[in-house]
Amino acid sequence: MARFLPARPRARAVILGTAGAALIAGAAFGLSKADFGYATQKLLASQSQALFGFGRPLDHELKADFSGPGDQAVELAKGLTATLVSSSVGEDADMIALWPNDDAPTDAIICNEITGNTPGSPGTLQRVHLADGAVTDIAFGLVSCDPAHRTAWGTIIFGEEAGPVGRLYELLDPLGTTGVQIDRAAGTTSDPEHIVARTALGQLSYEGIVVLPDGTTYYADELRPSNGKPGGGIYKFVPSNPRAAGAGPISDLDDSPLVSGTVSVMRLGLRNGGTDYGQGTNTGAGKWISLGTSPGATWNLAAAATAAGGYTGYYRPEDMDLDPIAWAKGKIRACWNNTGNDSAENWGETLCLTDVEDASANTGRHPVVEPFVIGNSHLRMPDNLDFQPRTGNLFILMDATTSAEDPNRTNDQVWACLPDGRDDDILSDGCVRVMNLRDGDAEFTGIEFLGDGKSFLIHLQHRNQDGRAIPETSDMLLISGFQVR
């Protein structure tokens, strides 16, 4: 017995040290144990420099209707700065793909979320030269161009948030391609050597997309539930001809792995032979249910998934991003936002999908979905998101009802959320407010970090202030000053 006695004081010291730290934190902020959660929130903010790479986060929200320049239309956490890259991107500029890479991009390829028609009207896919902010129209004719992403084989994919008839397209040579007319109903283009519709992935309301280097693609249908029907599903495309690792860029769109393959839809719930799926089972383990291959130029995936016996639906699943820390460890983990509806106090949420190796499963893997960020009346209606390189911190943009739409609401914000640590839960270890939008008419969209994690591009979409040099345009900002180790 005696030999164990010296260990007791040390163990007690550790316990007292942990409790002491909590007590000190509470005392420092003048808080009692009755509000320990608020004490923890204040402690998180005080450690922002070490945890997030910037100074004190914003501790308030805004109601404002600012109509001045874009770099003055945002309020930032301490240590961050905003630079106006361009004030003439499309009026509803959305997601951003950096070109030719994330580390030293010269241009940004962006979706313009409008209904486009012919040359002379704003392009629905645009190129922004980062050195001078000049904007060039690449393509016309889409409805609600929303997602835009660069592939590992040197192309850009972009898609339409256009309900069950939305399409996904692929672009070759984004710097040398301009003025392409797209016939979205037929799925054809005026320059098929540079832009083609990827009918193998089917039709839905495209928004969240993750494309792996071999062409395996995870994507969401931006659909809300209706009259008991499920909302948007999560789909997985597996190419017939996966791209080999390190194969390099392609020079012909026929060589893309997105030409052909099989599509599956996610259905969660494994109990009782997998019969406990449906409303109430939106997290946990599940299966990929095969929908087969595309039957032709038109293929409504939601209808096909329903015909296949049903799927797991979500409330308007939005942007999706691959977790870079998990990917570096050989793990496929992608997170996306379910927007929700703040007018109905459905604040939205961020969920994460891990595709686990399983030789017995369809596609050789089975999905597991876990909650990561639970929305609230402050962090509400999450839309775009992006993982910060090297840190694993997840940045989340709001697409909420603003003060211009409802005087009882505040304007949109940007939040940064820590990864989940070694604590017992599976949620982010905490989120802080990074940016406030001063213009209640506008919306944050399209966040995209540069490769070093020290800055990101972001849009202020559909600003309606008077006196813009070019009417019906948006602002692209560079937010910099993050200190990344």
Question: Any chance you could write out the topology, listing elements then pairs?
Answer:
Layout: H1 7-28, H2 36-46, H3 48-52, E1 74-76, E2 81-90, E3 93-99, E4 107-112, E5 125-129, E6 135-140, E7 145-150, E8 155-160, E9 168-172, E10 180-183, E11 188-189, E12 195-197, E13 206-211, E14 217-221, E15 234-239, E16 261-268, H4 271-274, E17 284-292, H5 301-307, E18 317-322, H6 324-328, E19 333-338, E20 349-357, E21 365-374, E22 382-387, E23 394-398, E24 413-417, E25 431-437, E26 443-449, E27 455-461, E28 473-480
Parallel strand pairs: 6-10
Antiparallel strand pairs: 1-25, 2-28, 3-4, 4-5, 5-6, 7-8, 8-9, 9-12, 10-11, 13-14, 14-15, 15-16, 16-17, 17-21, 18-19, 19-20, 20-21, 22-23, 23-24, 24-25, 26-27, 27-28
Characterize the structure shown.
- The protein has about 475 residues and is mainly beta.
- The chain has one domain (about 50-480): TolB, C-terminal domain (Neuraminidase, 6 Propeller), CATH 2.120.10.30.
- It has helices at about 5-30, 35-45, 50, 270-275, 300-305, 325-330; strands at about 75, 80-90, 95-100, 105-110, 125-130, 135-140, 145-150, 155-160, 170, 180-185, 190, 195, 205-210, 215-220, 235-240, 260-270, 285-290, 315-320, 335-340, 350-355, 365-375, 380-385, 395-400, 415, 430-435, 445-450, 455-460, 475-480.
- The protein has a nine-stranded antiparallel sheet with strand order 13-14-15-16-17-21-20-19-18. Strands 3-4-5-6-10-11 form a six-stranded mixed sheet, with no helix packed on it. It has a five-stranded antiparallel sheet with strand order 1-25-24-23-22.
- The protein starts with 6 loop residues before the first helix and ends in a 5-residue tail after the last strand.
- The model is unreliable at about 1-25 (pLDDT under 50).
